[in-house]
Amino acid sequence: MADDRMADIYAAVRLGGGDPEAARAALTRLWDEVGEGGDPLHRCVIAHHLADVQELPEGALLWDQRALGAVFGPGIPLDEGLRGFLPSLYLNLADSHRRVGDFEMARMQLAIARGHLDVLANDAYGAVIRSGLGHVEAALESRSMERLPAS
What we know:
The chain is mainly alpha-helical. It contains eight helices and no strands.
């Protein structure tokens, strides 16, 4: 069931707070189980969170690209569930490009993220994403490639 799969995904994500290696292993296992033809939302969420637990910025960028690819794959309708992830996906892409030193691409991804802010509610999640945009923008201005502290 979809609910069971999401429960498995979020259980794996929770491991990341204390044990990123365990989270990586659990999320990678789920990624393999869901497979290339799996539910786009599951693939997006798994890849999105796998990016967060990568040690190297290049690994994070790869998983951020896979998360976005899950949303925009061939024949995948952009429903509200997937559309709601776009600001966060583009924010993370901007941050990953910044961390690998591709500042121009980071700026472009940041602009795209801002263009999708209309899907966010004025709630705690929306505030986290909007704040994250400001943090990445500030890091870009200083040409920092350092990992930003978790919000």
